[in-house]
Design goal:
This protein is of the alpha+beta class and 178 residues long. Helix content is 22%, strand content 29%. The protein has three helices and eleven strands; from the N terminus they run E-E-E-E-H-E-E-E-E-E-H-H-E-E. The chain has a six-stranded antiparallel barrel. The longest helix is centred in the last third of the chain and has 20 residues, at 131-150. The radius of gyration is 17 Å and the shape is globular.
């Protein structure tokens, strides 16, 4: 498998025909890499590793068709992304599927849920340590999951690294939804 580590500056087109340029590389995982989208800070692009994009095209198309109604929360001028769900397909200059766009979760403004489990770690990171905060986080995660289930979606890759929370509001954000 070849990782698209040199994709910064690459031009792609969204399924709506919008021309996009990939920005800085943010993270790589087993299936692909995530990049900023130049001139669109509210979006990031997941680009599948070379040779496996075709395996995901139909899945992402289905996710776009069945997008859950779980919008971002707007509160006090702050936007809280709840789901990093695909919002558009991405294709290269030859029209080949390469990945998808999704809302950007502000990683700098969020923390991994696992970080509040150990009080010493939470204190060292300036995160809430009380039982009330933990109960609120559990309730907020349960509410997101319940809403997804109500809309007939099932989460199959629920793991701590894909669960982040906003320390100020204790709202949850789910990553790696594909």
């Amino acid at each position: 498998m070849v990782v698209n580590s040199d994709a910064e500056g690459r031009e792609l087109r969204s399924s709506e025909g919008v021309r996009l340029l990939l920005g800085a590389h943010l993270k790589s995982g087993g299936a692909g890499s995530v990049y900023r989208v130049r001139e669109q800070p509210a979006l990031v692009a997941k680009i599948y590793h070379d040779g496996i994009a075709r395996e995901y095209e139909h899945k992402v198309e289905a996710m776009l068709a069945l997008r859950p109604d779980l919008p971002d929360i707007e509160e006090g001028g702050t936007r809280y992304v709840q789901l990093a769900w695909p919002s558009a397909l991405l294709r290269d200059g030859r029209g080949r599927f390469t990945g998808f766009l999704m809302p950007a979760v502000d990683v700098a403004a969020t923390s991994e849920l696992e970080c509040v489990m150990q009080e010493r770690q939470a204190k060292s990171m300036g995160l809430p340590t009380g039982l009330g905060a933990k109960v609120t986080l559990a309730a907020n995660l349960s509410n997101v999951m319940a809403e997804l289930h109500k809309q007939r979606h099932r989460v199959v890759d629920l793991k701590p690294v894909n669960l982040r929370f906003y320390p100020r509001s204790l709202y949850m954000a789910m990553l790696d939804c594909d």
